[in-house]
Amino acid sequence: MLAALIVVMLYVAIRFQFKFSVGAVLALAHDVIITLGVFSLARLEFDLTVLAAVLAVVGYSLNDTIVVSDRIRENFRKIRKATPIEVINESLSQTLWRTINTSLTTMLVLLALFFIGGELIHNFAVALMIGVAIGTYSSIYVAATVMLAMNVDREDLLEPEEGELVDDLP
Asked: Which of 70, 30, 35 shows the shortest CA–CA distance to 51?
């Protein structure tokens, strides 16, 4: 799991920026820790299906965090006069309904698995329901808050405007 989080951090750092990767990895670690914590507190059986569910939660949450991060990056490039807090606020507002709708439709399927899926799939569905619920808010609030705490600003993400000279180019 640790190796996977390091690879995720590298991918997001290359694709976006280092501050985004720290936020994404902390959000993923948050999702896994809370999901495992609920299983521990409830004394639910942890088997291979639950491990598969936890890994699926990581993928689900990472996808959602990437969508939010992409919108933040786009808005930093579009909205040049706003503060970082305003840009991130606008970005979260734009992605909030998409995130909620995706999570609710996923939750409907998981509820069907929970009630109809049988004994074998029960803990798998529980782990995914917990993970999807936690992952929904962590990709919005944990990742973005970490980025703000690391002082992300438009200079981290801006592409040069047309006609603007860049030191790296001849």
From this structure: 35
Q: What gap in Å lies between CA 67 and CA 56, rounded to an integer? A: 17
Task: Give the CATH number for residue 43.
Answer: 1.20.1640.10
Are 113 and 124 within 8 A, CB to CB?
A: yes
Q: Which of 32, 36, 18 is nearest to 146 (CA)?
A: 18
Query: 0.90 cut: is pTM over it?
Result: no
- Identify whether 157 is part of a domain: no
Q: What is the DSSP letter of 158?
A: P
| 8 Å CB contact between 93 and 75 | no
The per-residue pLDDT for range 11-53, each reduced to its tens digit, is: 888 877 788 888 888 888 899 999 999 999 999 888 899 999 9
Question: Does any domain span residue 11?
Answer: yes
Total domains in the chain come to: 1
